[in-house]
Amino acid sequence: MIQKNSVKSYLKLLRTEQYIKNLFVFAPVFFGGKLLLQTAFLNALIAFACFCLAASAIYIINDYFDIEEDRKHPVKCFRPLAAGTIGKQTALLLMAVCAITSLSVSFWLSKQLFVILAIYIIMNLLYSKWLKHITVVDVNIIAIGFLLRVIAGAVATAVEPSVWILLITYLLALFLGFAKRRADVLLSMDGKEVRRNIDGYNLNFIDTILSILAAVIIVSYIFYTISPEVQEHYNSKFLYVSIIFVVNGLLYYMKLTLVDKVSSSPTQIILRNRTVQLTVLCYAAIMVYLLYIK
User: Fold this and answer.
1) Model's pTM, two decimal places?
2) Same domain as 142, residue 268
3) Burial of 215 (0-12, 13-18, 19+ CB in 10 A)
4) Cβ-count burial of 190 within 10 angstroms (0-12 exposed, 13-18 middle, 19+ buried)?
5) Predicted pLDDT at 1
6) What is the total count of domains within the chain?
7) Residue 1 is assigned to a structural domain of this protein
8) 3-state SS string for 24-45
9) Which DSSP category does 276 fall into?
């Protein structure tokens, strides 16, 4: 097949739209109330860029391992490597450049950040080759990846993340991961070729997990808002107002997952769904007001 090395193909290979996940790097400095401090913000921005490069490297190697499997998938068959629009050697070279640049810059900023990124890359290499085929473990690896983003933001900015941020990040990542697996199960039930570990899932199992996780996230967030130390940090007892957006955001996402059956890509939902965007913006507005304006 003739290769079409267009800019669009390279951006698709790098999965630049997925960079939105790396915003979790800013969580410690944002919720720590130090986002407006120039040094903290710049360090968080560098850590964000490092994770973007590392994530792109992982996406490329994952696509490299899954070329044949992706060609059978109704959506993934359009990925550059599966479609043949970018050659394997070119992709591997780009992967190496992204990984080396990410690790080099992170080492320059902080040795701790370097270690975290190295763990992230090694973990995801194992995920791409083996761990993604193990039921439940696959989703946990994704959730741990989000935890590493938060921890990376913390070490880059010298802001200690609260146990609440780490807990809720992990639970939320699990929730989104299982919602995505549900979409794969539906494709499998329709006779489509999907990842091998889907045989370890079924709708009843995933729906039960989603219900449990949603409940635990809501309860955890309620305890977060009424925690004395958290109220002291925000210097306000009105943080509980944000519960409205957390609860309804989760309920709406469950509706998208269970009723509309469109949870195959959380990133695309965030980038395109106006209701989700409005919910996130309203929540962010409350936090900005309490932390930086009030």
Assistant:
1) 0.90
2) no
3) exposed
4) exposed
5) 40
6) 2
7) no
8) HHHHHHHHCCCCCCHHHHHHHH
9) H
Q: In this predicted structure, what is the pLDDT of residue 3?
A: 46
Token pair for residue 252?
């709406």
The residue written with tokens 């290979």 in the block is 13
| Domain stops at, among 104, 125, 160 | 160
Q: What is the spatial distance between Cα 186 and Cα 182, in angstroms, rounded to a whole number? A: 6
Give the C-alpha distances (Å, rounded to integers) separating 258 from 149, 208, 255, 266: 28, 11, 5, 14
Matching residue, tokens 């190295």: 118
CA atoms within 13 A on the CB side of 25: 27
Look up the CATH number of the domain holding residue 94.
Answer: 1.10.357.140
pLDDT, averaged per 10 consecutive residues of the chain (294 residues), comes to 65 90 95 92 96 94 79 72 81 92 95 96 89 89 95 94 93 95 84 69 92 96 92 87 95 94 87 94 94 84
